[in-house]
Amino acid sequence: MTLVGNGVRGDFMSDSADLALLSVVKEFGAHRAVDSVTFDVAPGEFFSILGPSGCGKTTLMRMIAGFEHPTSGDIRIRGKSMLAVPANKRPVNMVFQSLALFPMMSVGENVGYGLACAGVDKIEAGQRITRILDRVGLAGFEDRPVTKLSGGQRQRVAIARCLVLEPTLVLLDEPLGALDLKLREHMKLELKQLQAAFNTTFLYITHDQSEALVMSDRVAVMNKGRFEQVGSPRELYHNPLTSFVAGFVGDANVWNGSTFGAQATGLGIKLSTGAALVGAGSGSGAVSAYLRPEAIALAAVPGELSSLPNRFAGTVSTVLFDGAASTLVIKAEGFPHLRATLPQAGPLAGIMAGAPIGFGFAPEALKIFPA
Ligand SMILES: Nc1ncnc2c1ncn2[C@@H]1O[C@H](COP(=O)(O)OP(=O)(O)O)[C@@H](O)[C@H]1O
Ligand SMILES: [Mg+2]
Fold this sequence. Notes:
Blueprint: E1 19-28, E2 31-41, E3 46-50, H1 57-65, E4 72-77, E5 80-81, E6 92-95, H2 107-117, H3 122-135, H4 151-163, E7 169-173, H5 181-198, E8 201-206, H6 209-215, E9 218-223, E10 226-231, H7 233-238, H8 243-248, E11 253-263, E12 266-271, E13 276-281, E14 286-291, E15 297-299, E16 310-320, E17 326-331, E18 338-342, E19 356-361, E20 367-370
Parallel strand pairs: 3-8, 3-9, 6-7, 7-8, 13-20
Antiparallel strand pairs: 1-2, 1-4, 4-5, 9-10, 11-12, 11-14, 12-13, 14-20, 15-19, 16-17, 16-19, 17-18
Adenosine-5'-diphosphate is lined by residues 28, 31, 33, 51, 53-59.
């Protein structure tokens, strides 16, 4: 196996992978919605595709499900090309954002629908329905109308309906999109636990970075039809390889500037607002720089930060209290607004707007990309 620069596998292990895409392209007229996408998903893996609205996620998924045909490239499941296999014969099942439950049917009828279509006899179907409802926490719900369920319960029916068919691969297209924030947080954990318990391969698409980071073994970050980077949530967060990934995954201070050459501790850059910094990365001329709020060390006096080549003095302009994680907005000469995570404990925990503050960061924390 070879890895090309962005972590996207150059060749692939289609026979041992549950799903493999090779140079898949989809054009709608002159518009290239999916642009040469190559990746594979291992058995039992929770793999997410994360990207902004319109970047081609649903189109990619519809091709895997068999609802769209690629313009070129190949899609393989367990080593077998799917191009000539119709949607209803592919060993995949899809959960939609709308859930697409049948409102006139009971929970049991919804879950059993696919089994009936597949010709599974009534007794066996009944047993499988009971078993799956038990495993998703809906034991005894067979006769309940789906219209009488809560949002979270409906979500579980949609998952049960999909898993009861024992697909090789489950495709989930923004399945939590319709839920309110609190339920979404809860369902993230629940989906992850279900996936682990069933050990089924999940391909999950979302525009919500927190969903992708929390649930996935690996994430592909997609932009304008292409995969920018594939990696574990940690890799993407700590080692973004492109400016798009750095800006899309996690929170960051994003600044423009220009380089002024290699320094002893890293690459020198001058922000458009005036501050001179040392960062990590490449590029000459116009660059953008990314700094995570939690990578900034804070001190009552800048002298405490003497081990950091980047250290400055400023003033707290705002304290954004947010329960577990508060953020300071800091004003300093030569900087645009700077957001830094405030540690929960320690001498600065009660700091107020107007207080003087020292801040600093390691060169490795400041990621520099060509603009
Ligand atoms: N059937 C279609 N005909 C023409 N353009 C389409 C069609 N389906 C999707 N597109 C276009 O392809 C792009 C990607 O869409 P989509 O895959 O739905 O993105 P996402 O799911 O990431 O929001 C969009 O510009 C969209 O307008
Ligand atoms: Mg979509």
